[in-house]
Specification:
The complex is a heterohexamer, with 2 copies of chain A (463 residues), 2 copies of chain B (375 residues) and 2 copies of chain C (93 residues). Chain A is an alpha/beta fold and 463 residues long. Helices cover 58% and strands 8% of the residues of chain A. A 6-stranded parallel β-sheet of chain A has the order 5-4-3-6-7-8. Chain A has a two-stranded antiparallel ribbon with strand order 1-2. In chain A, helix 5 packs parallel to helix 7, helix 6 packs antiparallel against helix 7 and helix 8 packs antiparallel against helix 9. Chain B has 12 helices and 19 strands. In chain B, helix 1 runs parallel beside helix 10, helix 5 runs parallel beside helix 6 and helix 5 packs antiparallel against helix 10. Chain B is globular, with a radius of gyration of 22 Å. Chain B starts with a strand and ends with a helix. In chain B, strand 14 and strand 15 form a beta hairpin. Chain C has a domain of 61 residues. Classes of the chains: A alpha/beta (463), B alpha/beta (375), C mainly alpha (93). Chains in contact: A-B, A-C, A-D, A-E, A-F, B-D, B-E, C-E, C-F, D-E, E-F. At the A-F interface, helix 1 of A face helix 1 of F. The complex binds NADP nicotinamide-adenine-dinucleotide phosphate (2 copies) and nicotinamide-adenine-dinucleotide (2 copies). The site of one nicotinamide-adenine-dinucleotide (NAD) has 33 residues of chain D, from helix 5 and helix 6. Chains B, D: Belongs to the AlaDH/PNT family. Chains B, D: The transhydrogenation between NADH and NADP is coupled to respiration and ATP hydrolysis and functions as a proton pump across the membrane. Chains B, D: InterPro entries: Ala_DH/PNT_CS2, AlaDH/PNT_N, AlaDH/PNT_NAD(H)-bd, NAD(P)-bd_dom_sf.
Chain lengths: 463, 375, 93, 375, 463, 93
């Protein structure tokens, strides 16, 4: 059907739109149009039969989906996506079963019942769908805090997992070779159940830090499930879309792993990788949660900002990041962003330390402000960009009488809409050697890297 | 509440303990400020400027009469302060170890001497720390003065008439003054290396783009050292350091020394024999000269020439940038009194941590622990 | 459709998916996940067929259930993406 | 071929016209070099160093005797040169317009005076151009000396005791010296602006990161000006320039003037009234002081204080960096003689373009065109 | 045929390999394997009939191709590619005719002769092939200098072109609708001839500067021709490959136009765009030819180099490019390239001008060399990177007695294997105001842009 | 193969072509052209069929001619690409 191809093309265009924020919303619209075409085509080619029931079903589903999407807090996004995946997985299982039960409707009925190849496709679709479902449920539970985020490790889980997978494959083969409802039903039923189970088993051992990767991976699975059903039904739209979602999800997980320095293999394989878990947000001192970002995130937000205040500290000096910083500021200014430098009286290790370095990088004196002159401006700033400073932004200086820095005036970076904090590690502390609440604020994104390297990457990403 | 500011009487002292800016701020706190006529001349501040800021101008006697607090850069002779209220505070630098007699005289006069050099090195006292603010300027000035004395240019210049190579500057002692000296010399285009005994300074040297040169064989002081202070080093260390310096110094054009050990004579870092290995026309600036000097043969406020090398150093280097030095010094004093200002009593009330640290004399007695230790 | 054609389409679509993702700016990875999630509910097509055809009542009800689930996803997915993208709207300059 | 180098006799002149490096190079060309004992002292060069380089050392008389060429920084009194060969060359700076009498005396003595200041500003003569090499150092030194005189720091420093704001430096006249002054002041962290009459300098000022401040209403000299030289400006321009300066100068802490017009007195750029608008403690360095000065009241080698502003300027600023200045000057002289060295005659033979430009006297007469014009 | 799909995949992998120099040769091998698969599959599925003739044909063609490829000078690359394109175009025409003459062999024979849709595909294939052929022949002639590179503008060419195109379309339609050899032959013959003619017409008016874009566009056409034949033959390999080549060629032309600031539309439309021609290498002062490069070219060559000597001049100071330059050098050093700075005694406008700026950018003094110390090293340098210098590298100072700079020592950049020369325009001169032979050397690539911008772009491209 | 499948394959391959080119580094644009030129001679498949089948002698000879032309291209194209790429070989470090 040409229409299905067109739907597929629209889906491709939808993803393509996301290559830049400017075209992203148009991309989303393309996705909607594609879906509309697919749905309408299907209805039309099937004589718009059973429209009332179908209409009601879509209305119910649509209303629920719409309301959830509206109500949900932005912060609950990851679990929402995980939850949605589970639905796709379950739908795939249901469609698979429907096809199994009513092969004629799908044009699968040959003289000898359903052809083995169709049965393999069907079995795979159901299995992948079931894995997607149960895996997503676990991911949802972990992300929404309904289940502990820490990995749950069964003993001998490697053996169990491998065994279950093998069993699924064997069952699929038996299912394909068997003929007649009586012979096939037990196989497909067992296969479905086992697939649900393996989905649980694969995700349960994965820790909270890896969940985003898992969600993306499950996304990929849901694509493969759709593609498998597409093969069964010979439906171009489903094949294209399934392959698209499947491969893009896989690559996305890979990209995410790379950004987090995690092994892709271990995450795909789910529970198998739990041994070398940890990393990421799991290792904060005292386990306080923080958000880690990348140069691309920072570049993106900086570009969007109207006003950025840069707070350099000793770390900038150590990294000798002043030239890169100046370049970053220049690029932002070219894009119409207002950039100011806020210099704390004791930033660095000698009086005027920051001034020396900024002057070396030819930062104009007009853009350099003292604490008293700029502190009130954080409330209007979109981004506070902290580069290698620490003590001078530590709110403990105001609130915690026992802190060694109590009484020192500090920058009120908490008033800025977004805070980026460049330092090399969560472990490192400033001169005063104390922890800093700014790391853990909602609007703070930690950029953990050498300051010069990070700023250079941001400069590249800004292009 | 009356605050008195006298003209500094020490020779070569151009600084002043209050500027029109701080006079105004004290006024805003509710204090009356009296300034001796001509006190600001050395720092390019006219009497009118003080008057405009709300100060009363007069002779020393008139100014001190009934004063609650006397501010000084270098502590005045207590004889000058007879008119002040009994138990009046005198906040200034006292050089308590070097001028112990003066401290005793303050005790006898019944004055409360607050020695700004004894300000503890804690974060909240940074804005009151005159040692930091003055060393910073001294570090800068030392380089400028050396550059002016040196018979060559600091930066590298490749010109049609050939290349002028960059001066090699070596900074010994990387505290506040040393760091600023590094920064200034770097700015001028010199090739800068530096050394210290505290290991944390290595990274700090690099953070200014200079090259650290450290004793490797014997361990120095780990990290920042307690309170950022160095201590006397072991004989073994000193030997290793001397070897290092001997190897390095012959290739240097400018050496700036800033090494101090609180409460003791400055460590001797450069011997006459080492000076003899330097190129003719080289310059050594000894910032520690007032504390006995890091360099053999250096004399305060005198340019000595040995083996063709000029050795200079002022007893009071920051005082040679009198305008800025006075501005920072007087802000330190204001920050100090302001931090402890009690709205109800209309006067400052010190806390223990800082008060006990800086107070030398009270009720006729020398009360400071550090002076008891050494006395 | 013959299997080779289907397979060709599948393979090429995988390539497209591969390339498309690499060209997405990292800042939009979360919306990307939401969009791909939404479009993966193209599985609704299968549900619709099952629901529309006569032949097996069980299959029909299963199909309808699949339609409900997929619809949640379609509407929810696109709507949530729209919301996310609205946050990234370029300020007016 | 005998080349003689005398000790400079002018007061405050520490430079010397040859260094061991150039002595060696002359030797390689086949010349004998004789150096007066003690000639290098001011530039930190010992007699041994000359001897090691192959020079003969001796008294002035001994050195000059039978010399073919005498090199000097400032041309020596012809009386000193009686022992030289008749028609011997004397290559040095002659200040031909200012010291016309000396030129005539050279003519009478039958010497061939080669004035290095008259070196044409053509590309191939760049390496022989003593004006460039010395102005360059002078520009650097002017800033260093000003920084040492100024009672504040040049760079901005935000410190716990408050902010020291950056010094504002204004450079007037952006030739070689002015550019180097801009560069040096920028390095020290000052806020630098500069002005000139030649429009090409605008971009040059920016190329060093400083801000050009130019007369806009009246047109100045287009591009580089012929040979890079400025001329006397129209009265209209001068008026516009004075207004610009009046508006700008009151906000400056340091002013460095370098404006020269070849063959004339330096233009007067700053009046006493303008000085009075400057802040107390400001510093003006007049590099043109020897040519009459750009600043009203400036005196060579004297620090004048007017309206609280210090006005300084040495007659011979480069001479205060004697070691580097001597090195460059002597390389200029070597490059000059070397470029024209004739292998066969074992002596230099000048060509027309450069020879006629620098030659002041020959065969008992003043032969230079530029001197005929003004005589 | 699965094998054809596999061949297609190999071709995709071949192009993908070119995303980095490291994988590029593997990519080329993939291409060869793909071609081998396609050829072998075809032979096998056609019973290896007529093998001797086919073998001989391939041997002849292969030998010619191989020898040409070996013998050709690297500088003749563009015309070689154009020549090759013409062959593909002609081959497409021949295959189209063969299919027309022997439809049964291609499985095109239905009850009523060849189906109209097949005939449309066939017609398109022949037409595009013919256009590719004649267009490529012209491009080849222009590039190899056998024909003047300047645009040849016929009067009323817009009308002629449009008319011919319309005629081709009409003929294709008539061809599709007609039945029987007698009816169809005139149409297809006319169509072929007209297509050859329009190919000439379209390319003749295009100037030499635009030829690279034209070659890429013709490449694209040859892809479309193959795809059209693939449609006719229902051959997956041909469709995938044709579409791949067609679309990639089109995009490549687009990218090239963008880099050259030319309008894509005008070039695609061929002669239509000749009005705003010029630009590029055509406008050198005194019409001396020079090569212009991009930041990407420079980045690529710099990265490959072992030793780079940077020669900064007054232009670097004007652009304040020193910080960017330092960053570039740092990146190169990280990649193992040796970087030195060569400072001419009179570079800039004051003694030591370059030293001030390089010191500001914290270039270590050890990397900065005077003329005498480094001039002999150019012979060992892979790249001389001239940034805003001009007079100081002008060989006229050595050779031309009448030059105002005669007698000044200059850098012997001519000894370096490759020279990059950053300045803003070919018109601008240095202080001395004279032209510079270095611009026109064989190994020189001009990077015309503000120095800072150019270096920043190189830094980005180096990543 | 039905037309829709063919079209689907065609469209998807166009997308792949689009993306593939954008990911090629600009420095390799010339080799890219050479490679695409070489692989576009996949048209040889058509020539081979014509040459291999009986039925029309003219068609056979046309086919053989096409094979010759395409072969020039295949061998010449790949070989020349190989030569070009050899220039870009990363030095050993
Ligand atoms: N200005 C003065 O005169 C003076 C004198 C003495 C002491 N102090 C004290 O020094 C402190 C100054 O505060 P500050 O905020 O400037 O510095 P800070 O509190 O010492 O913090 C420096 C931060 O930079 C990070 N860092 C170090 N190297 C880095 C690199 N290469 N790349 C990225 N990040 C790097 C460190 O974390 P990681 O290790 O995790 O990277 C640390 O968080 C104050 O406590 C002040 O009292 C100042
Ligand atoms: N060093 C000294 O003391 C001194 C003093 C006076 C004169 N000079 C003379 O100055 C010359 C110095 O030679 P040089 O090689 O350094 O410089 P140059 O010969 O003057 O050439 C400067 C080059 O930079 C280019 N340029 C200018 N601005 C640019 C920008 N923003 N971005 C990119 N390119 C830019 C110019 O071409 P475009 O306009 O096309 O961009 C020009 O080709 C010599 O002739 C020397 O004799 C030197
Ligand atoms: N509130 C604060 O946090 C605060 C305030 C002021 C200073 N400080 C820190 O205290 C430290 C020292 O400051 P300072 O300038 O007052 O120090 P200082 O004047 O006491 O000594 C100067 C330097 O000399 C060094 N030194 C001593 N003996 C030496 C030897 N034998 N050889 C080489 N070097 C030797 C010291 O280590 C020190 O770095 C600095 O790190 C400074 O940042 C902190
Ligand atoms: N061979 C060469 O190419 C060569 C050699 C030496 C100098 N130069 C060039 O010659 C130029 C001048 O060099 P210089 O330093 O010897 O010049 P200078 O010493 O003669 O004059 C100094 C500066 O003062 C400026 N000036 C004169 N009158 C002024 C006024 N009324 N107001 C403001 N400024 C005024 C002049 O324009 C000049 O820039 C420079 O651009 C230099 O690069 C070129």
């Amino acid at each position: 059907m040409l229409a299905y191809l067109i739907a597929g093309v629209f889906f491709i265009l939808a993803l393509r739109g996301l290559s830049s924020p400017a075209s992203s919303r148009r991309g989303n619209r393309f996705g909607m149009v594609g879906m509309l075409i697919a749905v309408v085509t299907t209805l039309v080619t099937h004589d718009i039969a059973n429209l009332p029931e179908i209409g009601v079903a879509m209305l119910i589903g649509g209303a629920i989906g719409f309301i959830i999407a509206r109500r949900i807090a932005m912060t609950a996004m990851p679990e929402l996506v995980a939850g949605f995946h589970s639905l796709v997985g379950l739908a795939a299982v249901l469609v698979g079963w429907a096809a199994y039960l009513n092969p004629a409707a799908f044009g699968l009925l040959t003289a000898t019942g359903i052809s083995p190849i169709s049965k393999i496709e069907m079995g795979l679709g159901i299995a992948i769908g079931a894995i997607t479902f149960s895996g997503s449920v676990i991911a949802f539970a972990k992300l929404s805090g309904r289940m502990s985020g820490s990995p749950i490790l069964l003993p001998a889980r490697h053996v169990i997992n491998l065994g279950t997978l093998a069993a699924i494959i064997v069952l699929t083969a038996l299912f394909a070779m068997a003929t007649g409802p009586d012979a096939t039903l037990p196989y497909i039923a067992a296969l479905t159940v086992l697939a649900f189970i393996i989905g649980f088993l694969l995700i349960i051992p994965i820790g909270g830090a890896d969940m985003p990767v898992v969600v993306s991976m499950l996304n990929s699975y849901s694509g493969w499930a759709a593609a498998a059903m597409g093969f069964t039904l010979g439906n171009t739209a489903m094949i294209i879309t399934g392959a698209l979602v499947g491969s893009s999800g896989a690559i996305l997980s890979y990209i995410m792993c790379r950004a987090m320095n995690r092994s892709f293999i271990s995450v795909i394989a789910g529970g198998f990788g739990a041994d070398d878990s940890g990393g990421g947000s799991g290792e904060a001192k005292e386990q306080r949660p923080y958000k880690q970002g990348s140069a691309a995130d920072a570049a993106f937000m900086l570009e969007q900002a109207e006003k950025v205040i840069i707070i350099p500290g000793y770390g900038m000096a150590v990294a000798q990041a002043q030239h890169a910083l100046r370049e970053m500021a220049d690029m932002l200014e070219e894009k119409g962003v207002e950039v100011k430098y806020a210099i704390h009286p004791v930033a660095g290790r000698m009086p005027g330390h920051m001034n020396v370095l900024l002057a070396e990088a030819q930062v104009p004196y007009e853009n350099v402000f003292e604490l008293e002159d700029i502190n009130s401006e954080f409330a209007q700033a979109d981004v506070a960009f902290i580069i290698g400073a620490n003590d001078v932004v530590n709110p403990a200086a105001k609130t915690d009488k026992s802190s060694p820095i109590y009484g020192m005036p500090v920058f009120d970076v908490g008033n800025a809409k977004q805070v980026f904090f460049i330092k090399r590690s969560m472990g490192g502390v400033g001169y005063a050697g104390v922890d800093n609440d700014v790391f853990y604020m909602d609007q703070t994104m930690m950029l953990l890297s050498d300051a010069k390297k990070m700023v250079e990457e941001i400069v590249k990403a800004l292009d | 509440m009356r605050i008195a500011i006298l003209k500094e009487r020490a020779t070569g002292e151009n600084r002043v303990a209050a500027t029109p800016e701080t006079v105004k701020k004290f006024g805003a706190l509710g204090a009356d400020v009296a300034v001796e006529a001509g006190a600001g001349t050395g720092a390019a501040i006219t009497d009118e400027a003080y008057r405009d800021a709300g100060a009363e101008l007069g002779s020393a006697d008139a100014v001190v009469r009934e004063a609650d607090i006397v501010l000084g850069v270098q502590a005045p002779d207590p004889a000058l302060l007879q008119g002040a209220k009994p138990g009046a505070w005198v906040a200034a630098t006292f050089d308590p170890f070097g001028e112990r007699d003066r401290v005793d005289a303050y005790a006898q006069a019944g004055l409360e001497a607050l020695s700004m050099e004894f300000m503890p090195r804690i974060t909240r006292a940074q804005s009151m720390d005159v040692l930091s603010s003055q060393s910073n300027l001294a570090g800068y000035k030392a380089v400028i003065a050396s550059a002016d004395t040196y018979g060559r240019a600091f930066p590298m210049m490749m010109t049609a008439a050939g290349t002028v190579s960059a001066a090699k500057v070596f900074v010994m002692g990387v505290g506040v003054a040393g760091l600023q000296a590094i920064a200034t010399a770097k700015r001028l285009g010199a090739q800068v290396s530096a050394t210290d005994v505290r290991s944390a300074t290595k990274e700090q040297i690099q953070s200014l783009g200079a090259k650290p040169v450290f004793v490797e064989e014997v361990e120095g002081i780990e990290g920042e050292g307690s309170g950022g202070y160095a201590t006397e080093m072991s004989a073994e260390y000193q030997k290793a350091q001397a070897e290092l310096v001997s190897a390095h110094i012959a290739k240097q054009d400018i050496v700036i020394t800033t090494a101090l050990i609180p409460g003791r004579a400055a460590p001797r870092l450069i011997s006459d024999a080492q000076i003899a290995t330097m190129r003719e026309g080289s310059v050594i600036y000894d910032l520690a000269v007032a504390q006995g000097g890091n360099v053999e043969g250096s004399k305060p406020d005198e340019a000595v020439e040995k083996h063709g090398v000029k050795i200079i150093g002022f007893g009071n280097t920051a005082g040679h940038l009198a305008a800025d030095a006075s501005a920072l010094f007087s802000r330190n004093l204001f920050n100090f009194l302001n931090a402890f200002w009690d709205e109800e009593q209309h006067k400052p009330v010190l806390d223990e941590e800082i008060g006990d640290a800086v107070r030398l004399t009270k009720g006729g007695k020398v009360v400071n622990e550090r002076l008891h230790d050494t006395a | 459709m013959d299997f080779i054609s289907i397979l060709s389409i599948f393979v090429l679509a995988c390539f497209v998916g591969y390339y498309v993702v690499w060209s997405v700016t990292p800042a939009l990875h979360t919306p990307l996940m939401a969009v791909t999630n939404a479009i993966s509910s193209v599985i609704i097509v299968g549900g619709l067929i099952a629901a529309a055809e006569a032949g097996s009542d069980v299959a029909k009800w299963l199909g309808l259930a699949a339609v409900v689930l997929a619809s949640v996803n379609i509407f929810g997915g696109f709507a949530v993406t729209e919301r996310m993208l609205a946050m990234y709207k370029k300020k007016d300059k």
